[in-house]
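Two entries, shown back to back:
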Amino acid sequence: MKTVCIGGGPSGLYFAISLKLRNPEAEVLVIERNRPDDTFGWGVVLSDETLDNLEKNDPKSAEAIRGHFAYWDDIKVVKEDVAITSTGHGFCGLGRKVMLMLLQDRCRELGIEMRFETEVDDLDALKAEYDLVVAADGINSKTRTQYAEAFKPEIDTRACKFVWLGTRAKFDDAFTFIFKKTPHGWVWAHAYQFDADTATFIVECAEDTWRAIGFDTMSQEDSIAECERIFADHLDGNALISNAKHLRGSAWLNFNRVLCEKWHHENVVLLGDASATAHFSIGSGTKLALESAIALAELVSTKPSLEEAFTAYQEERRLDVLRLQSAARNSTEWFEDVERYLHLDPVQFNYSLLTRSQRISHENLRLRDPEWLKSAEEWFQAQAGANGHRAPMFAPFRLRDMTLKNRVVVSPMAQYKAVDGCPTDWHFAHYAERAKGGAGLVYIEMTCVSPEGRITPGCPGLYAPEHEAAWRRLTDFVHAETGAKLCMQIGHSGRKGSTQLGWEEMDAPLKEGNWETVSASDLPWGDGHSKPRAIDRAGMDAIRDQFVSATEMADRAGFDMIELHAAHGYLLSSFISPLSNNRTDEYGGSLENRMRYPLEVFRAMRAAWPEDKPMSVRISATDWVGERGVEGEEAVEIARLFREAGVDIVDVSAGQTSVEARPVYGRMFQTPFSDRIRNEGGIPTMAVGNIYEPDHVNSILMAGRADLVCLARPHLADPYWTLHAAAALGDEETAWPLPYLPGRDQMRRLAERGEGLGIRV
C-alpha cells in the first residue's frame, strides 16, 4: 500500500512508524511544510497510560522517548503571593523538538522517506498517486478545509488569548499555575519543565484584558517583554523565549476546538489535530494523536478495505475523543471564567482548579495526596464552624436560625398519591423514611396553592384545613425522631396543570375532568393542550393571596423552611421566561417587567413567613433554547433580584419551560448554573441534576460550586443514601437512628472490606 502522510508532526511521524512496523514492505512518505526542527510548541505532556501504549506498539521509540522525559508529581497553584502544592499527579514531559527528532530518527531506521520544506499544493493529484492519504496537517488543516463538505468540521473559537513561550527558568519541582493581577485584569501562566534546561510557559488571559494591556498593538518583542515584567518574580531573571518569530504579526492565538462529523473522504483520512483538538490546559492533544495513530495503523493493516478501516477507526476513537473533549471543554471554560473564582480562599481555589475538568474527583484526590485533602477538608469544616476533617458533605450549614446537620438535600420528587390535595399515609411513610435516612434537609414535592393550581389530580395542596393537619402529623414525627429539617415547596402549575399522573403520560392533558389553566400569556404548553387564560390583575391578586395563605399554613404545620417554585414552566416561571410571556403590559418584555409578579408573590410570602425561618426559590437557569430564552447573565440577574427580595438560598435547576428545549444531559449537568450564580452573584445556591455519588457531592461543595447538594432519584432507590455514604466513607460521626445501630455496624464492617454498600466512592 502506497501511503503518504501530510504533516510531519508527532501524529504523522508516529503513524508512519506504526504502519511500517506492520507492513515492512509498504512505501511510506511523510511530507512536512516546515524544516525538520521547526515547531510551534515547546513541551509535550504524556500520561503513564499513553507511555504504556507506545511501549506495546514500538518498544524502540518508546525507550528513546522515555530517556528524555522529565517527571514530576506535584501541581503548584500560585495566586498572587500564596502558593499551594499538592502531589501524586504523575506527569511526564519532554521537548516537542526532541520528540520530533527522535521520531524522525526512527522513521529513517525503518526506511520511511521524509520531505521537509515541501508544500502540498495539489491534493487531488496526491489522492490519485497514493492508495492512502493521511492528513495530519494540524489544527489549521488545509486538507480539512479543501474537503470541508465531506468532513463537516465544527470549529469553536474559544474566548481567551494565549501565547506559547519557553523559558530557562526552573519549574522542575511542579507543574505550576501562576495567577497575577494587573491594573487591567488577571493574567495567568501554565508552566512546566520538559528538560533539564527549559520549561514551557504559556501565558493566557481574557481578551478584554489582553486589549487593555495593549498586547493587540505590541510587536512580538514588546509583548514578550511585557509578559516578562508581569511574571518577573517567577522567572528569576530569565527571559521568555518565542519559537514563533518566523510568524508574521502577533504570536497570540485563540484556541480552536475542532471536531469533524466525518474523519475520512474517499482515500483520505484525518489524524490528530486535523480531526479533533483538546485544549492545552489538560495536556492531552499529543496523547490523542499518538493513540489515534496506533489505532489507524492497526486497522488499515488488518481490515479488508480502506472504507472498513476508516469506519472502524472513527467508531473506535470517536468516543475517547469526545470524552477527552468534554473534559477539555470543562477545563477551558474554567479558565475562561477564572475571574469568577479568584475571590475564593486559596484552598478552595486550588481545589476548584484541580477538579475543573471533572476527571479528578474528591476521592481520587484522596488517593493522590491524602494529607493535602485532609487539610482541605479541615479548612472546609472550619469555615462551617465545625472541627475535624470529615468530608464536606457532612459539614453543617446555617440559614437564618435553621442549622442543617449536613449538606445533603432530598430533592422534591412528585409522588402523585394525594387525594383531593390531601397527603396520605404514602406521603407520611415516604418522607419519614427519607428523614430517617440521614439527609440534612428533606423537601416536600411541589405543593399547590389551590385545586386549579395542581399539576395532576394526585398532587398535594396547602389550601384546606385537612391538608395542614396531615402535614403537621409528618413534621411532628420528623422533628421528634430525626435530626432532619423539612422544607415545603409551594407552587402553582399554571399552563402545565390539569395533566395525567407521572406514570401515565407525563405532561399530557387529562382524558377527562380537566380544569381551566392560567398562565402569563395565552400560549398552550404544547400540542393537545388547551389554551390557558392569560391571567389578569384580579387573578394575580387572588393567586398571590393563595400563596400567602399556603405560607401561613406551612408555618402552622411546623415546616422549618419554605421554597417558592418559580421554575420548570409553572405559573411564576411562565412570567420569567420570554418563551411563555408575550405580554405587552408592565409584566412583559424586559426582565425587570417579567420578574415583577414573581417578586411580588415572593415578597408577600416572605412577609407572612417568620423572620427566623429561611426561604428559598427554585429557578430554571436556562430554557435550553439559546439566546431566545433565559440563559447566562440573565439567570444570575434573576437570582440577584430574588436575593434582594429576601431569598436566603437559590435552588438552581434548569429547563422544563418549553417543549422546544434541547437540554445537554450528563453527570452533574446542571451544576455549572449553580456555580455561576454562586460565584458571579455571590449568592448561596443548591445544585441539582444527575448527582448520584458521594464523590459528586463532595467535589461540588469543596470547589465552591454550591452550598447544598440535592439528590432526587438516588433517594428514591435508597432512602438511607446519606447513612450508606457515611459508612462507605468511614465517617463515624453521622448519627443513625438508635434502633438501626446493628445495621450501622454491619455496614461499617462491609465498608472496611469494600463490599455491599451500593455506594461507589
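entry 2 starts here
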Amino acid sequence: MSVNDLALGVPPVDTGTLARELVSGLMLRPWGEVSASVYETGRVVALAPWLTGHAERVDYLLARQRTDGAWGAPDGYELVPTLSATEALLSRLRHAGDASLSEPVTRGLLALSRVLSASGGLSLPDTPAVELVVPSLIALIEDHLREAPDLGLPSVRLAVPPGMDAARLARLRGALRSGADVPQKLLHALEVAGEAACHAPGLVPTAIGTVGASPAAAAAWLGDRAGWSDRSVHPRHPLVRRHLEAVARRYGGPVPVGLPITFFERSWVLSWLARAGVPFDAPPEMVADLCVTVGQEGTAAGAGLPPDADTTSVVLYALALLGVRLEPESLLAYESETCFHTWPGEQGFSTSVNAHVLDAFGAYVERHPEAAGRYEGRMVKLARLLRDHQQADGSWSDRWHASPYYATVSCALALHEFGGADSAAAVRRAVRWVLGTQHEDGSWGRWTGTREETAYALQILLMTGSGEDERRAAAAARGYLFLTRSAGTEDPALWHDKDLYLPGAVVRAAVLASCHMARRDPAVLAAIQRSHNPVRKQ
C-alpha cells in the first residue's frame, strides 16, 4: 500500500533508498560509527596530553558538563563519566597550571561528593568494568588532592561504593607486570592498570594497532611520551600510536569508548533491515566477511575485542535472513546449565543476549528443520528463561542498554517468532506495557522520548500482531508521526560500555525498519489518515 506522505502531513520517506545508502555506507567506514565518549575522552586527556587534538578534547569535556557539575545521564550513569572528566581536568589544572579549570573541577568534585554519598542507596548501572573503573579513578583524584593541596579546591571525601575495592585492581596490575594471561575482555579497560599497562609483557596489540578496541586502553599501553625513545623498541608501538592519532583526527579531538565495532555494526544493521523486510542488497564482500568471522569461538564485535555470544548471535541471525547457511554451533561454547553467557565462564546474565541466541537458533531451524533435534531443546530452555525474567509490568531490562525498550524488543520479538505457544501471553503483556508507556507526543523513552526507543516500541507493536488491534494501530501511527517529524534530531547515547554510547548506523537502521513497517500496515495508515481528517461533530 503506497503512502502519500504530503497528504498525511509528514515529510516524504523513501525507506528503501535510505536503507541501501546506509548499507553501502558501512563499507566506507570499516571501523564503524560510534559517538564520542566523555569517559574515554577524559582518560585520553589525562594519559596522552601529547596526542593530536588535546585542546579540543578539553573543550569537549567543558562543553558537556551539566549545570549541576556532573557529566552524563542520570540514575547512576553520571558517576563514571564525572569521575573521568573531573580527574582529567584536575590533572591538567595540576600539571599545566590552567587556572580556568579551577571552577569546573570544583563543580565536578562537589557533584561526585553528592553522587558517591548517595551510592549506598543508588543502584549503579552494570556497565563493563565499573568495579575496576570507579575505584581506580577515585584513587587518582585523591592522589591529586593530597599531592597538590595548594590548588584551592574543596575538601571532599569520595567514598568507594559498596562492593568495590582496590583488591581486584591490584591483582590485575600484578598479573600484567608478570606477563601472566588476563581475560581478553579486561584489555578493553586496560587504562585502569595505570603504569602496569605500559607495554605490558604478553600483551600484543592487534595488527591494526588497537588495544582492547579502546582509545583509553591504547593510550595506557603507549605510556608517557617522554619514554618513547626507550619504549619504542616494541615493534607495534608506532602502529598503536598511528591508530590512536587516526581516531583522534576522525573525531576532531574527542574519542569514542569503543572502536572498531565493525562486525557488531554490520550484523545489527543487516538484521534490523532484513527482519522488517526493507528492500536492500547486502554487498557480497560484507556477507563474506561476516561468514569468515564466525570461528569456533564465535565472532568479536571488532578487532581487539574477544568473541562474544551477542555479536555471534546477531551475525548468525543476519546471515540466516540473507539466505546463508551457517550452523550456529559456535554458540554452544557460551552455554551453561541455566543460560547463555556473553563470554564463556562469566557469571553475568543478559536477557538480550539470550534473546538473540534464541533468534539465531530459531532462524536456523526454521530454514533447516533437519537440525531441530540439536537446537529445539535449547530453544525451549531459552524461551522459558526469557519468560521467567519478564517484569511484572510486561517489560524486560538488560545489562547492555539503558532503556527497557531495547531489552523488551529483543525478548518480545524472539518469543513471538521462536518461543512457541507458551510465550504468547508474555508477548501480549509486552504489547500492553508499550501501549501504556507512550508519551503525549507519540514517542517512547526511559527519560524522554527518543527516536531509538520509539523505533523499538513500534517494532513490538508492528511485528508481534498481538491483539489490541485498534489501539495498537493508533499508537503506532502516533509513533510513526513522531519519527518522521523528528528526523534529523540528535539521538542520545543509551548503549552500555564503560560509558553510554550511540552506535549511529545501528540506530538509524532500527528507525528505518520501523518506518518501513508502519508505512506498509493498512491499519496504521488508516489511523494516520484519521488523525489528519477527524470526523467533525454535527
